[in-house]
Amino acid sequence: MNPSDLLNALFWIFLIFTFLSPYLQRQALEAARTRQILSLERKRGSRVITLIHRQEAVSLLGIPLVRYIDVDDSEEVLRAIRLTDPGMPIDLILHTPGGLVLAAEQIALALLRHPAKVTVFVPHYAMSGGTLIALAADEMVMDENAVLGPIDPQIGEYPAASLLALLQTKPLDKIEDATLIKADIAAKAMRQVAEVAERLLAKHMDPDKARTTARLLSQGTWTHDYPITVEEARGLGLPVSTAMPREVYTLMELYPQTQMRRPSVQYVPMPYSRRGA
Q: Of all residues in the chain, what percent carry a pLDDT higher than 90?
């Protein structure tokens, strides 16, 4: 083979490898995730479902896709629940900034109807719609530093509670019709979310406590990104534990962030302990 043919062959081998490499990496990652899920299921005797939203590289160009809870998620989670025997516990691993209220409510209500124990694991955060889903659990297992968030509805770019507050601080004839329409939708959305939250919380609270907690979470008590810590969640009466299985952390490591940017956090990825003299 002459040098020109050799270079041409090497070029095509390189090109094929470049195209196949991301696919092979994704397949290996999927296989590792499946093994970890099966390992956790064997340990706990449960059905493990993950609802994890990270910025993962998609397409050959590695364009990051920001993900939220949507109807595709609800369809898949509901299917997984249907495939689970009524007597088998469900473990849901949640890592999400929130998303579509419709999808979050569908998932939460389906978990509420499941006869066996439902446990939600929050290794880092489950905000907004993620918190609404977590309210359906018999037990919430959170990392000591993990957080939940308020479930107050957002109407476009504005909090529903703030739109209603506007009606109390400004004459109606000074408010645009579009804003008044949004405020009407906001009132309905807040009532609807509060009713769903109350129904979920009634699973492990008395009716009065469930109503109070539902209103606290859904009526704009805090900003929408306010972090509800383990201590605050327990103070609200939520069934929170911090006994997080090591397998959950290992599984989270198999959902890496995109590497498009230089990492802003770096460390030697191994446990450190202080040695005694």
A: 73
- State the amino acid at position 87 in one-letter form: G
Up-side HSE of residue 194: CA atoms within 13 Å toward CB? 19
Indicate the pLDDT class of residue 231, thresholds 50, 70 and 90: very high
CA-nearest of 215, 181, 182 to 198 is 215
Rounded to a whole number of angstroms, the distance between the first and last alpha carbons of the chain is 66
What's the whole-number average pLDDT of the chain? 88
Q: Radius of gyration of the chain from Cα atoms? A: 23
Q: How far apart are CA 229 and CA 120, in angstroms?
A: 15
Q: Inter-axis angle of helices 160-169 and 177-201, to 10 degrees?
A: 130
Q: Which residues contact 51 (CB under 8 A, 6 or more apart)?
A: 69, 73, 77, 92, 93, 94, 95, 96, 107, 130, 133
3-state SS of the chain? CCHHHHHHHHHHHHHHHHHHHHHHHHHHHHHHHHHHHHHHHHHHCCEEEEEECCCEEECCCCEEECCCECHHHHHHHHHHHHCCCCCCCEEEEEEECCECHHHHHHHHHHHHHCCCCEEEEECCEECCHHHHHHCCCCEEEECCCCEECCCCCEECCEEHHHHHHHHHHCCHHHCCHHHHHHHHHHHHHHHHHHHHHHHHHCCCCCHHHHHHHHHHHHCCCCCCCCCECHHHHHHCCCCEECCCCHHHHHHHCCCCCCCCCCCCCCCCCCCCCCCCC
Mean pLDDT of 137-163: 96
Structure tokens at 216: 């606290």
